[in-house]
Specification:
The chain has 239 residues and is α/β, with parallel strands linked by helices. The chain contains six helices and ten strands.
């Protein structure tokens, strides 16, 4: 069985790799690292090695065993395009996604350069969504790499949103997720930032998904924007 997820924009998670290293300010309060490090040194636990990058080859074929079609977030506990993940391993993951055509796979990375560099060797089935993280204008360059990747759905994850994103480059982008940081030390997200992104998406006919306000009390803060939720999905993201 797949592992169900509490992440609002997906159904389940699949982690053929776990562990990562920080590359930008959006990583500062990484929820995955915090979770994994709680179990460092616990004998026999899946995170006995904490958040050290670990290839989980035994998990690669898992999606082929799942019967119910679902949206699957790939590597919620890592970054598939991390420099220490071999090219051939990434290719194998993509081949499984192609074979498991009944599912939709959502791959998110901060390593946009490597994503583009490897893209000519990868099989982008119509069920594979590719996204990059953009937490501030300093990382608009990731979008340029994403634009050159031949995925059926290209998306941006603006979470944690750490600054306003004026003139967000949305050419060739189909979906934008916005969310505030949560947990201890959460950095604030301003409402005008979120509203501006929503308006840019509307102007450019891009699906907009508002995930959460975040903060220390994530559930209490909720996910309403202007009194309603925004759960839009790409127009051709059929189930």
């Amino acid at each position: 069985m797949s592992k169900g997820s509490s992440i609002e924009w997906t159904d389940s998670t699949w982690n053929p790799v776990t562990g990562c290293t920080k590359v930008s300010p959006g990583c500062d309060h990484c929820y995955a690292e915090t979770f994994a490090e709680r179990f460092r040194g616990v004998p026999g636990h899946p995170f006995e090695r904490g958040f050290d990058l670990t290839l989980r080859a035994e998990r690669i074929v898992q999606p082929l065993e799942w019967k119910k079609p679902q949206r699957v977030f790939v590597n919620s506990m890592s970054d598939l395009f991390h420099r220490d993940v071999p090219d051939e391993y990434i290719i194998a993951v993509f081949n499984v996604m192609k074979l498991a055509a009944e599912h939709q796979f959502q791959v998110l990375t901060k390593r946009a350069e490597r994503l583009e560099r490897l893209s000519s060797r990868l099989t982008f089935g119509p069920n594979v969504w590719i996204g990059v993280s953009v937490e501030s204008p300093s990382y608009y360059w990731r979008i340029k790499h994403l634009e050159r990747v031949p995925a059926a759905v290209r998306f941006l994850s603006c979470e944690p949103l750490l600054d306003g994103l004026p003139r967000l480059p949305l050419h060739g982008i189909h979906w934008v997720i916005v969310g505030g940081e949560s947990g201890h030390g959460a950095r604030p997200m301003h409402e005008e930032w979120v509203r501006d992104i929503r308006e840019q998406c509307e102007t450019n006919d891009v699906a907009f998904f508002f995930k959460q306000w975040g903060g220390r009390q994530k559930k209490k803060a909720g996910r309403l924007l202007g009194g309603r939720t925004y759960d839009e999905m790409p127009a051709f993201a059929s189930r």
